[in-house]
Specification:
- The protein has 1 helix and 21 strands.
- It is mainly beta.
- The chain folds into 2 domains: 2-111, Tumour Suppressor Smad4; 144-241, Tumour Suppressor Smad4 (Sandwich), CATH 2.60.200.20.
- A hairpin with a 2-residue loop joins strand 10 (81-84) and strand 11.
- The chain is elongated, with a radius of gyration of 30 Å.
- The chain starts with a strand and ends with a strand.
Length: 242
C-alpha cells in the first residue's frame, strides 16, 4: 500500500500519480500541469527520515495551498486536499495491481475522513443564534452617548487587568451579556445596568445581595469616580474619560 495524488479538476481530473521521492509538479514536472499560473517546476515531493511524505513549494510564484493557507511545506497524509495554483489534488491510499504486463495501475482505496476542520468565529456565533432563537426578542431602546465615557477597571477576580470603556448606554453587564460578560462563578445573568440620566450615570441592580457598590447593598446609585462595584470576588472600579 502506498500514497498517490489524485487530480480532482483540470485536464488531469481523476488521474492518479503514485508518490515517489523527488517527484516534481509543474509545467515541466513529473506531474505535468498545463496551467499559466503554474511554474515550470512548481513543487517537489520529499520523504523525511521518518518516512513521512511532504510537498515542498519550489519558490513558485503562485504557491501551494492547504485549508486556504499558502504554505511552504504540506504534510501528505491520506485525505489531505491541496491546491497547486488553481489545480486541486487529493492524497489517497492505493494498491499496485499487477496486470501481467509489468504495468502497475494505481487502484485508489477509500480515503479516511478528513481531519475535523476548526470552525470560524462567525460559524460558532451563527450556530449559537440559531440554537437560541426562541430566547431572543426585539427590544427598542433609546441609546444615548455617555459623556464622559465610563471606564470600568477590573481590580480583582478572574477578569483582573481587564478594562472596558463604554461610550453609549444604557448597557447591561452580566453573565448572559455577549459584549460585556461577567465571568465570576455564580454571577447573575444581568449583574447591573448603567443608565444615562440627567443627574449622571445611574448604577442599577436587581441583585443587591450579590452585587454591592462601595460595600453597600443598594439597588441604584449615581456613579462617581472611585466607586467600587463588587460581584463575589470580582471588584470593578469606576472612572471616566473625556
Amino acid at each position: 500500500m502506498g500514497l498517490a495524488f489524485k487530480a480532482l479538476n483540470g485536464v488531469l481530473q481523476d488521474e492518479v500519480f503514485p508518490l515517489k521521492p523527488g517527484m516534481t509538479m509543474g509545467r515541466s514536472g513529473d506531474v505535468p500541469l498545463n496551467d499559466a499560473k503554474v511554474s515550470s517546476l512548481h513543487a517537489k515531493v520529499e520523504q523525511t527520515e521518518k518516512g513521512e511524505w511532504v510537498l515542498v513549494d519550489n519558490n513558485s510564484k503562485n504557491g501551494i495551498y492547504y485549508n486556504g493557507e499558502r504554505l511552504a511545506r504540506i504534510p501528505l497524509d491520506p485525505g489531505v486536499k491541496f491546491l497547486v495554483a488553481d489545480l486541486l489534488f487529493e492524497v489517497i491510499s492505493y494498491e499496485a495491481l499487477d496486470l501481467g504486463n509489468d504495468t502497475e495501475v494505481a487502484a485508489p482505496l477509500p480515503a479516511p475522513p478528513p481531519p475535523r476542520k476548526a470552525k470560524y468565529w462567525h460559524e460558532v456565533l451563527g450556530a449559537l443564534i440559531e440554537g437560541n432563537l426562541d430566547t431572543f426578542h426585539d427590544e427598542v431602546l433609546e441609546v444615548k452617548p455617555l459623556e464622559p465615557a465610563l471606564v470600568l477597571d477590573f481590580l480583582r477576580g478572574v477578569q483582573v487587568t481587564s478594562r472596558w470603556t463604554l461610550g453609549f448606554g444604557p448597557r447591561k453587564i452580566g453573565a448572559a451579556s455577549l459584549d460585556l460578560p461577567i465571568w465570576e462563578p455564580g454571577a447573575p445573568a444581568v449583574c447591573f445596568e448603567v443608565i444615562p440620566t440627567d443627574d449622571g450615570l445611574l448604577f442599577k441592580t436587581s441583585h443587591p445581595g450579590i452585587v454591592t457598590i462601595n460595600g453597600q447593598e443598594v439597588d441604584s446609585k449615581v456613579l462617581h469616580v472611585g466607586d467600587k462595584i463588587q460581584i463575589s470576588e470580582t471588584v470593578i472600579e469606576v472612572d471616566f474619560v473625556e
